[in-house]
Amino acid sequence: MSKGANELTLAEAARALRARELTVRELWDACAAAAHAKNGELNAYLELFEADGAAIDAAQKRIDEEGAAAPALCGIPLAVKDNLLIEGRVASAGSRMLENYRATYDATVIKKLKDAGALFLGRANMDEFAMGSSTEHSAFGRTLNPRDTSRVPGGSSGGSAAAVAADMAIAALGSDTGGSIRQPAALTGLVGLKPTYGAVSRSGLIAMGSSLDQIGPLAKSVGDARLLFEALRGLDPLDSTTIPEDLYPARPVPKKLRIGVPMNLLASGLDPDLKAVFDATLGKLAGAGHTVIDIGLPASEHALAAYYVVMPAEVSTNLARLDGMRYGRAARGATLLDDYVLSRTEGFGEETRRRILLGTFVLSSGYIDAYYRKAEAARVSLRYAYDGLFDRDDAAKIDVVAFPTTASPAFKFGEKSDPLSMYLEDVFTVTANLTGMPALSVPMGTVAREGKDLPVGMHFTAPHGAENVLFAAAGEVEKLAAS
């Protein structure tokens, strides 16, 4: 085996386990050794778990007995973002507010992975309560990008992305509220999927924005992302927002894709080197027989503004329970008001406090009509605009919308200290969360910075329930990048 066991893709590891080229224990030990060796520098994990001998033995027995019939994830070591509940483990969401909270049950996605025989290496670092685009806002220290440790790995699932990119896990779970899987995937050279809203249960996910959050995979290949997604998806009685798989009309995958690109939105603000890679990738797709169509999406110009009204409003509501009385860190002052103020000031970091305050403001009686309800109206308009592109029956019909995932490669720590400049990092990714459509980032190449080749990603959005079309489009880019 030319690769180290920890360097394998999920599909490669599953094949090696079934071919008796590798045991589950050897795969675990390789990933755990890499994690212990590298985590001191990268801070990808907040906690590394000890080997669960019983779970490892059970996975090996299942593979031995069932062979190819065993789930692909059986025996595969995964990293798990720190806002997903694993029974008996701390789940802090990267915050001092919950640093002592120990989960009393498994998130539905964790239960599904346990049922499939997957193993968990540890809790991956994240921006506090998933609020950030760089994993600089964790209460427990920043995570470094394995591709260049002077730069951010993206956020908020930066710990999960860094763990996989540094071969400290075979794959990982993240959560995506405005791009928090796709953006770190792009900046670390991975595939990241935000599924259709409701395709994957949110039960056991510590909520940030309940109408925006989705759990999804960070993986080394498109095929790996698909394997994880298929294992995670499905109805869940514990989450009333989950949807049956046949809710949306089936979308056949055409042999040649029609790819819509809103060129007007890419005219300014893009890093020139990244734009050159994006244009070259579009050219290769066209050369392979796919059709690239310049589309108009004027509604998308308002997506970021709408997102940064809707999201803080939901943050303010979701985190209201963490007051030091009912839940969360409890600090005691001279009065009851002091108890509340001290608990939330000590428990929440600066970025979390900023978003709570903004959300409380846009929901207040004097401003809810001026801001929140207008943002919700813009959200509806945005969904209609996308549906109109996907559901046409003329020559302007498209299968996917393509953007660069980010406007630039990974930036250096501290470079986006102004909150507004950080929020602009989400400009291409928030639309999929506002509309509920599935979206995926796939590596499309690299740009050179200070002697390092930094990965950049291509972003595809597809109609609701059309993850199969996303995987097909991303697979085409993956093949072109490898050629």
Keywords:
483 residues, alpha/beta, 11 strands, single chain, 15 helices, 11-stranded mixed β-sheet, Amidase signature (AS) enzymes
Topology:
Blueprint: H1 10-18, H2 24-42, E1 45-48, H3 53-66, E2 77-81, H4 108-115, E3 119-124, H5 158-165, E4 171-176, H6 182-188, E5 191-194, E6 214-219, H7 222-232, E7 258-261, H8 272-287, E8 291-294, H9 303-318, H10 336-347, H11 350-362, H12 368-390, E9 400-404, H13 419-423, H14 430-435, E10 439-449, E11 452-461, H15 467-482
Parallel strand pairs: 2-3, 2-4, 7-8, 7-9
Antiparallel strand pairs: 1-3, 4-6, 5-6, 5-10, 9-11, 10-11
Helix pairs in contact: 9-11, 9-12
Q: What Rg is obtained from the alpha carbons, in whole angstroms?
A: 21 Å
Number of helices: 15
Low-confidence stretches: none
CATH superfamily of the largest domain: Amidase signature (AS) domain
CATH architecture of the largest domain: Alpha-Beta Complex
Order of helices and strands: HHEHEHEHEHEEHEHEHHHHEHHEEH
Q: What's the CATH class label of the largest domain?
A: Alpha Beta
What's the arrangement of strands in the largest beta sheet? 1-3-2-4-6-5-10-11-9-7-8
CATH fold-level label of the largest domain: Amidase signature (AS) enzymes
Helix residue percentage: 25-40%
Largest sheet: 11 strands, mixed
Roughly what fraction of the amino acids lie in strands? 5-15%
DSSP strand count: 11
Total domain count: 3
Distance between the termini: 22 Å
Output mean pLDDT. 96
What is the compact description of this entry?
38% of the residues lie in helices and 13% in strands. The chain has 483 residues and is of the alpha/beta class.
